[in-house]
Amino acid sequence: MGVVYRPAAPEDLEPALRIVQEAYNDLRSRHGLAANVGLRPPLFQRFCLAADPDGLWIAEAGGAPVGFGFAWMRQDFWYLAQLFVRPGTQAGGVGQGLLSRTLQVAERRGGAANRTLITMAYNTASQGLYIRNGLYPREPLLRLAAPAVVLEGRIASAGLDVVPIEPWPASRDWLGFLDEAVLGFRREDHHAFLLGGFAARALRIEHGGRSVGYAYISAEGHIGPLAVAPCADAAAVVTAAIRCALEGRPNQVSMVVPGQAERVLEAAAALGFRIEEPFVLLSAQPFGSWSNYLPSNPGFL
C-alpha cells in the first residue's frame, strides 16, 4: 500500500473525524464494548489548525484518507490529541508515519521538554507504538458516569461557592496560575476556546472568596477539564461541580478521574458513579499533580 502523508487542510477535518469514529468503534467492538462513539463537529481541530497547522496530518492511500494524526503544543509541552488509522490498514506503519510527522511541530520549536498523550487502556497495540517512541505509561484514568436521578438523591452541599468564570481575558491570570501549579504549564488559548462558547458552563469554584478550582461542564453533563488548587479539598471541588452539572438536567453526569485522585474516586463511588471506560496517560517524563486535575477527554487533556 503506497501511503502519502500531507498536512491537513480545513476540508480534511470532517473526513478525518469519520476515520476516528470508525477506528474507535472498531476497537471498542473488538474488546466487547458498545460501538457508541458518535461523530462530532471538528471544532477543536479547526481551532488548532488555525493556530498551528504543523500539528495536523492526513495519511492517504489511493487518494483516500486512511489515517489522521493531531498534536498540539503549549510552551514546551507536546500533546498527541488523536492518532487513528482506518481499520484494515493499521498494520502498514501508518501510525508510526503519522506520529513521526506530528512530532515535527516540537522539532520546529526547538524540542519539547515533555511529550504525552492519553489512550484507551485496552489499546495495547498503540501503547506498544508509543513505548517504542519513548512515551511510557504513567497514570491510569477512569471515565466514570452516574444517572442524574441517582446523584440527585445522594449529592450534598460541598460548602463552596460557584460563580461563572469571567469572560476572557479577565480570567487569564488566575487560570494560568492554577494550570502552572497543577499541570506545570499554561494553556491560555485553550481556556479562551472553552470560554468562547465551546463549554456549556464555565465555573470558578471559591472558598472564602478565594479561588480553589475551575470546572467546565458540557451540555450533556460531562465535567472537565477540572483543576483543583494544591491546598484545596479535591473531593469538595468535584462535588460542587457535580451539583452544578445536575442543574443542566442531563440524563447522566460523567467525568474522567485519575487513579491518584483517591478522595475523588472514593466520593464518586459513594455517589453511585460506575466505570465506563479505562484510559492511560503516557508521557516521556512524569508531570502534573494527578490528584488535582480531571482531564476533559483524551483529545483535549
UniProtKB/TrEMBL annotation:
CDD domains: NAT_SF
InterPro entries named in the record: Acyl_CoA_acyltransferase, GNAT_dom
Annotated SUPFAM superfamilies: Acyl-CoA N-acyltransferases (Nat) (SSF55729)
N-acetyltransferase domain sequence ranges: 3-156
Highest taxon of source: Bacteria
Entries under PROSITE patterns matching the protein: GNAT
The protein's name: N-acetyltransferase domain-containing protein
